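Worked example 3 (structure in, sequence out).
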């Protein structure tokens, strides 16, 4: 490849550590230029193949014209500060890693926000709720979850969304969509039924003090074998599914269609005929690109035979990912499902570029894509580590009336309470007076 700038997506992806330092607002443009000079003949920005390096260099954030002004070009996203345009989609990577979640990469979770106000979670893998919560979106708006399959790295944090949303502002039930299985006990409905059974103690103790309504889960299970089937259609949004090939019968891929835009969320899958057929010409196509076999041996503790099977038969290799994207030709390709670090990203990038030369992001957590028919803008989010839940427009439901929900605590245990009224009585009286409680 010839000399050129690293593309925006690749610069975000390949220079992960530099970007994260960018939370302290480093000069992103300067980093891109320095990186491009050093590796210009190696990592080529496909959209700028013929543009001289120096001609495109500029200060990060654009030009600030006044001493009290702001940087006009935000290369970071601050959650809660930007209203979506009516024709715009915002895609957020809440989890891009592996089952053994890391602090900087949770397991799989994608949030899609639409300009009509709708929001959809696709998978809710282990550890991902930390990133979801940091977006400070009212939990009433995060009540729709679409599961691609039932490996824990794709639904392991459902308990956090279920209980966390229940205690922090969701006013109605959580809604789950997911595939059936080859037998009933391998399907989504069975999984949620037994999820609730496993959390019986949790639910019954909360039901007594909180409204039971947000603790309910509504499940829509659909046939995993159906091709390009409509599984959701409301408010101008259509979500379709088709079979995926991963570990056993049941996994699926999704496509979200809205306002003439199409986002494909592949889940975990080996390259397959359905993805090729139904993801062609998507605006954004998400597909796993797994660790190379030698990386699985070196970093993930797998034997060579297991690494070869996992990396090239159960999952999708970087080279195979590239062939998929070269075939379906999306406006923008997103690869994920590996720990994106210094020891892995360059080998994976090289593998993808053996077979694909189009627009690409190798995703990390907190990466954001704003998508319209004319542009795809890629940034990193800067969010607080100590985010509080944000109230939505619907007032929280009142606790159940006494006697309507069984008391989960016996008189024997209640009799063990120690009297602390002298310590907290004044505080309780003041709070009641302040809030009008009797």
């Amino acid at each position: 490849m010839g000399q050129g700038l690293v593309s925006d997506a690749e610069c975000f992806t390949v220079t992960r550590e530099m970007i994260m330092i960018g939370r302290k607002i480093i000069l992103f443009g300067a980093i891109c230029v320095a990186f491009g000079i050093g590796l210009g003949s190696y990592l080529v920005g496909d959209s700028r193949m013929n543009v001289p390096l120096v001609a495109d260099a500029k200060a990060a954030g654009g030009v600030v014209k006044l001493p009290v002004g702001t940087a006009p070009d935000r290369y970071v996203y601050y959650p809660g500060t930007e209203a979506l345009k009516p024709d715009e989609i915002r895609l957020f990577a809440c989890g891009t890693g592996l089952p053994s979640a890391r602090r900087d990469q949770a397991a799989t979770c994608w949030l899609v926000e639409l300009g009509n106000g709708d929001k959809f979670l696709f998978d809710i893998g282990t550890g991902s709720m930390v990133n979801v919560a940091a977006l400070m979106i009212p939990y009433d708006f995060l009540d729709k979850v679409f599961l691609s399959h039932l490996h824990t790295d794709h639904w392991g944090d459902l308990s956090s969304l279920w209980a966390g949303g229940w205690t922090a502002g969701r006013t109605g039930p959580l809604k789950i969509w997911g595939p059936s299985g080859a037998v009933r006990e391998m399907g989504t409905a069975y999984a949620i039924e037994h999820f609730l059974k496993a959390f019986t103690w949790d639910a019954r103790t909360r039901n007594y003090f909180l409204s039971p309504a947000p603790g309910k889960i509504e499940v829509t299970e659909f046939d995993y074998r159906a091709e390009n089937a409509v599984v959701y259609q409301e408010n101008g949004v259509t979500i379709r599914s088709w079979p995926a090939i991963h570990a056993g019968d049941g996994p699926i891929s999704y496509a979200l269609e809205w306002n003439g835009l199409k986002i494909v969320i592949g889940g975990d899958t080996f390259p397959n005929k359905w993805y090729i057929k139904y993801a062609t010409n998507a605006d954004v196509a998400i597909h796993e690109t797994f660790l190379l076999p030698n990386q699985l041996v070196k970093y993930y503790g797998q034997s060579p035979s297991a690494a070869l099977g996992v990396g090239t038969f159960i999952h999708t290799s970087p080279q195979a990912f590239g062939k998929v994207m070269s075939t379906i030709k999306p406006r923008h390709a997103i690869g994920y499902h590996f720990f994106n670090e210094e020891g892995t990203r360059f080998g994976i990038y090289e593998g993808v570029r053996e077979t694909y030369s189009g627009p690409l992001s190798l995703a990390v957590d907190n990466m954001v894509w704003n998508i319209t028919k004319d542009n795809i803008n890629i940034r990193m989010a800067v969010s607080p580590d100590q985010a509080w839940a944000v109230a939505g427009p619907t007032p929280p439901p009142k606790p159940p009336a006494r006697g309507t929900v069984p008391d989960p605590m016996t008189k024997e245990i209640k009799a063990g309470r120690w009297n602390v009224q002298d310590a907290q009585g004044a505080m309780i009286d003041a709070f009641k007076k302040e809030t009008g409680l009797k």
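Notes: Residues 1-57 have pLDDT under 50 and may be disordered. The first helix runs from residue 8 to 14.
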